[in-house]
Amino acid sequence: MQRSLASFVVFFAVISLVIGGMHYYLWLRLVRAPALGAPWGRAGGWLFVGLGALIPLGMAAGRFVQRPLSTVIAAVVYGWMGLAILLFFLLVASEFVRAAAHAGAALTSEPLDRERRAFLSRAIAGAVSLVALAVAGGGLASALGRIAFARVTVPLRRLPAALSGFRIVQISDVHIGPLLGEGFLADVVARVNAAEPDLVVITGDLVDGSVADLGAQVAPLARLRAKHGVFFVTGNHEYYSGVDAWLDELRRLGVRPLRNERVSIGSGADSFDLAGVDDWSARRFGGDHGPDLARALAGRDDRRELVLLAHQPKQIHEAEKRGVGLQLSGHTHGGQIFPWGLFVRLDQPYVAGLAQHGGTHIYVSRGTGFWGPPLRVAAPPEISVVELVTA
Q: Fewer CB within 10 A of the end CB, N or C, for the chain?
């Protein structure tokens, strides 16, 4: 618990600095540059100070209040966060328009005077605000609308012919918390069951909150049905939420965590190995937590096919070296809000979809829920149906 609190404090400090800088930039381009005049300028300044403080303070407050108040706080805080992110990216893109206007004026030997600069800034601010609102509306509809199935076929050379067509349904990054709860998860469970999976896997970041706060919201998981069971590996957010209590709760609901271990799926020769590892970041939380693929694969017959569950795609580097046939991951949300996926690539080798890494396939889910802003822009949520076929 102390490590979870310390991690949250560090996260809170970092995000406060980032948010402060972002809001200063928004104030510069939406209030100062348009030269709105003294009364409006002062009001705009205080507005962005308030909005900047709202996000970290609201996030902190949300950890200490119960539903439905926590839901209201989260809707306001994360709703503004999402709009602010869109405004930020659009304003950064608009700097090219501003630069082009100044360059054009310089070429005509008529540099933009103060009045013309203010007019340009007002036009950009107005256009950016309208576009941000429109994109936010579409992103909200994508995040909260009906989740589509993402279907993919993966050929595996060691898969027994009798198992060709084996269907794994993957959900990931559901983020049950202040904004997503029992109703959302019940719909996901019903859709998963309707796909008639042979196996269900949950690749981390299921929750954002403690068992005491969210146990009732996660109860629909007990209704998941699959011929060969339901399996889970931890994501980084489980370690912010009381991981050991959640592991016990999931076992009670009939979901089996795989913690640096493997199981056989199938019967006799018509089977393959399923392994799972702790989240990449888990070591810093102490105890026996942390990914250990060597332990999970100890004593394995390397003639058998092997599917690995690992929350973060970066586990693929070790997975490929150890002969994994397919790795299933999440964590990235597919970027969630474009163009954030471009920055995710600085940390993760793959962001979304199916890829080949050496001799290993990897499938990265865009995630089933969302974290923070209830928006998905050019990164729709998914329930993944991964069909294994014999190569």
A: N
Rounded to 10°, the helix 69-107/38-62 angle is 140
d(CA 56, CA 68): 19
CATH class for domain 148-390? Answer: alpha beta
Report how far residue 331's alpha carbon sits from residue 341's, in angstroms, rounded to the nearest whole number: 12
Q: Report the share of the chain in percent with pLDDT over 90.
A: 82
Question: How far apart are the C-alpha atoms of 150 and 385, rounded to whole Å?
Answer: 6
Q: Cite the residue boundaries of each domain of the chain with CATH code 3.60.21.10.
A: 148-390
- 215/134 Cα distance (integer angstroms): 36
pLDDT in tens, 281-299: 998 887 889 999 999 999 9
- C-alpha distances out from residue 283 to 73, 234, 291, Å: 32, 12, 7
Q: For residue 50, count other CB atoms closer than 10 A to its CB.
A: 11
Q: Is 297 exposed, middle or buried (0-12, 13-18, 19+ CB in 10 A)?
A: buried
Beta-bridge partners for 386: 152, 168
